[in-house]
Each structure stands twice: as structure tokens, then as C-alpha cells.
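Intended use. Records such as the Ethylbenzene dioxygenase alpha subunit entry shown here are meant for training and evaluating sequence-to-structure methods. They are not intended to support clinical decisions.
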Amino acid sequence: PGRYSQLVDTQKGLVRREIFVDEEVFRDELRQIFGRCWLYLAHESQVPAKGDYVNVFMGTESVLVCMGRDGKIRAFLNSCRHRGNRVCRADRGNASTFVCPYHGWSYDLAGKLVGVPGAKELYHGDLDRSQWGLAPVAQVASYKGLIFGTFDPEAPPLEEYLGDMRWGLDLLLDQGDLVAVPGTIRWSMACNWKLAADNGAGDTYHALWTHRSAVLAGHPEGDGVTNDELAIGKHRGFTMVTGYGHGYNADWLAENVDMGSPLAAWRRNPDVQRKLGPFRQNVHRANQNVFPNLFVNTGSRDLMVRNPISPTKTETWRTILVDKNADPEIQRMQIRASNRHFGPGGMFEQDDGENFEQCTSAASGAFSQAYPLHYGMGLGHGQVVNDGNSPPRIDSVMNEHAQLWMYRAWAEFMDAPSWKHLRQEHSRPEGVL
Ligand code: FES
Ligand code: FE
């Protein structure tokens, strides 16, 4: 086994703590994971017209996502080829060209170098502009409005990368005609990005305890759902683990759901019901992680990218989706409910962030690193169900299979010499996990 596979013991469900604080691990992640996986960039509704752009991050790299004159969405590094300066400082906007603030090189919407001050007089016509465009993100593709990009030309197509996770993402993306609410909310936490990611991939367990006070205070509210969040054994749902480390827990709708609530209006839409089908219609909400760092909550309609800044610093970029055909008052209700839930002022987010920071801090001690973390809840009891109602699933919501599978995939990406190797390694779950 490679170096990183030794830090994740999938038989015993153990994960070594140094992977959350070590500088060398972090540098390898930027190349092996953020340089290789499909990463979420933006929602198509954020770049609807020619010349529209948003400025985002892929790992630690600043990237421009832009709709060209030809209507095609491209992404390229926001770094001038002359001295590397950022050619665009704005978060979003509409442009015809990007002019570098340092010496004035300019690039068109396809990243092509189109203007060089003094091209004739100073460069003597020697500079071949066709060779000095902005570095393109190797592949850009969309899934139901979500734009992803990968730096790796050898990465499999997006559809294949998402695989069975698409069935889970549809729990959100088929709820209506979703668009991004303008304004990305950002905040940073003194934590490793993986602790936030694994929580999203499958930690229903913590909700009973961490979010107890928020739930007792009456939150979440407003979506017509009154699941008993506080009782062990009362949660009913399922867990999905998929290839390449994506995963989630999903809760079934409780029996006492108020389907007449305004925020449950989408559930009554026959078109939505048809798209989701009889099995998925009964999902209350799912917390998901698209590996490596896109958190999705299908209830509050949140998309949160956990951007790595350093081993011990993570900046979250959060976008809320609403149904553009919903009544404006319902849209406002949904945004309010979502903001009470997640984001820097959200009751759940504040609970979670404190935990992620303390776990990170405790991982940095030379003494504490001798003690690996336990990700083994339910290990050996996760019967994989393959009944045709869904991709392979486990009919329990309270376990750590999705989290452990995320670390399994993490170790495989970290050790794999190339995508070819990874494509052989990954498979659907079967038997008992
Ligand atoms: Fe961009 Fe010199 S760094 S023009
Ligand atoms: Fe939480």
C-alpha cells in the first residue's frame, strides 16, 4: 500500500490525525486531489449572458469562469502570463476583455492574449500572442446547472465522475427551476477542509448532540417537517456511498409532516413528483458531499464549497438556490430559513464550525497524533441493498460508512499515480460494509 493508504485503515475504521494538519499532506492534496478531481465552480444562472464572469477558487488557485462570445462557458487561471498578476479583481461582472492592472496585457473572453502595450516597439513583434493566453482549466462541464471544472485533461467525463451521486444530487436539482441567489456568502474557519467535508458526507450522528440546543430552540422550522431530531433510534433513512468518495445520509419524511406548509409547496408539484419518482419523493432532506469539497443540503438548498487555504484554514463559499418560478414571498421565506440554518450567522453552522476548529487544533499535537480517530460506527453492519429503487444503499442513516469511504477515496487519490489507476480501483459498494 502507498503512504497515504497507511494513514486510513478501512478495515478498522481508523484515520490518522496528521492528515489534518501536516503541510506536506496539504501540498500533496493540492496536486493529487484539487489538481485532479472535478471541482464545483459556479451555477449557470450566475453567468447567464455573454461576457458574464465569476471569480472563484479551485483549491488555492484563483479562476475566472466566463461565458464567451460564442455562448460557451470556459474557465481559466486568473493569473497574467507576464508576471502572474491577477487580471481580474472583481467577484463577478460583465466584461469584454480582462486587462491586467500591472503592465496592461489584455485577454479576451476565451482567455486569448489580444493586447500587449508596445508589442511592436518594445517586443519587436517577437511575442507570439497565441502562446501566451491565460492558462485554461482543462475540462469544464455542467450537471443540471452546476458548473464543474478539472485541471486534469485525463479526468473521466463529469457524468462518470459524479456517477451514482447524480441520483442524490437530483434530490435537490429536480425540485424546480433552480437559480442562485445573487451574492456569495464567505467566511473562514481555523479547520482542515476534510473535517467539514466528512461532516457533510455522512455525519447525522452529531445532529443529536451538537445541534441539540438549536433544535430545542425551534430550528429547523418552516419547511413543514417536524422530524424528531433528538432521539437516537428514531431517525429513519439511508446512506449512500459512491465511487470517488461522494456520499450522503438521507432522512425519510416523518409521518407528521405538514405538506400544506408554503415551504413544502414544491413537494406537491406533479412534475417534481414525476422526476423524483415514488422512492425519492419521500426523502425529507439529505446532507451530501461531492468529493472533494462541495457540500449540498437538499432541504435548505445550500451549496457550500470548502476551499482549502492552508492545512488549518478553510474558507467556505456559500450559495443558496431558489426556484425561480416560486412565489417571491416563498423564495424570501426559504432564504431566511436557509440563512438561519447555515452561513456565518446560521445556528447549525456556528455549532459545527466550533467543533471542526477544536478537532483540527487537537490534531496538531505530537502526542495526540499517536491516537487515530474512530470512523468505525456501523462497520461490519452496513448491508448494501440493491433492490432497483436506487443505486446501492445502506438502509440506515446513523453510521459512518460515507465518511470512511470518503477517506478511502482520499487515500486512493493521494497515492494514485494517475487517473487510469483510479478508474480501476473504484467500484460500487456491495455485500456488507
Ligand atoms: Fe500582467 Fe505584467 S503582470 S501585464
Ligand atoms: Fe451540523
